[in-house]
Design goal:
173 residues, mainly alpha, elongated, transmembrane helix
């Protein structure tokens, strides 16, 4: 297997976990922003604008990214085989979630009903938020994929070979 020879360092794992947590928090804040934005619409002649990503809570899926980042940091500090497998499964779920979110966002951006004149500004701003999130999905995908590929090498090691952050720091001095 190709990933047997790859090893991700402790510092890199902590950074990947922190990046996943930050991306997740950003997605949750964007979901809250969209919630406030779309709840403030006034029903006009053409109705209100409710895109598919808002209806599915696509940006709220950032909670999964936060959970995956927390698991990466926990596995970095206390590596066990069960924790590594659990983190790998969560990261694979994040990859699937990211692919689904990209698909839904592209569908939303390619299809646009003309909302009423009063809600046009809110709909346009919501579409801009979707465009911004479209740039963050590949970043989340690459972080989850990188950790998944590099952490599979830890599954083939014995428990005695796994070191914690404190032991690695002691060994460097």
């Amino acid at each position: 297997m190709a990933c047997v020879h790859s090893k991700i360092s402790t510092a890199n794992s902590l950074v990947l976990g922190a990046i996943q947590i930050m991306i997740g928090i950003f997605h949750v804040f964007m979901w809250y922003f969209l919630l406030v934005l779309y709840k403030g619409q006034i029903k006009g002649a053409f109705g209100i604008y409710e895109p598919i990503t808002y209806k599915t809570g696509c940006t709220l899926w950032g909670i999964f990214f936060i959970i995956a980042g927390v698991f990466i940091i926990a596995v970095t500090k206390y590596p066990t085989r069960a924790a590594i497998i659990c983190t790998l499964i969560i990261n694979i779920f994040c990859i699937i979630t990211t692919i689904t979110a990209v698909t839904l966002t592209i569908i939303e951006l390619s299809y646009f009903n003309s909302p009423s004149y009063r809600n046009y500004g809110q709909a346009k701003l919501g579409r801009e938020v979707s465009r911004i999130l479209l740039f963050f999905y590949p970043l989340e995908f690459s972080v989850a994929l990188t950790y998944s590929v590099c952490s599979c090498s830890n599954l083939f090691r014995r428990q005695s070979d796994l070191t914690s952050v404190a032991e690695e720091a002691e060994n460097t001095f």
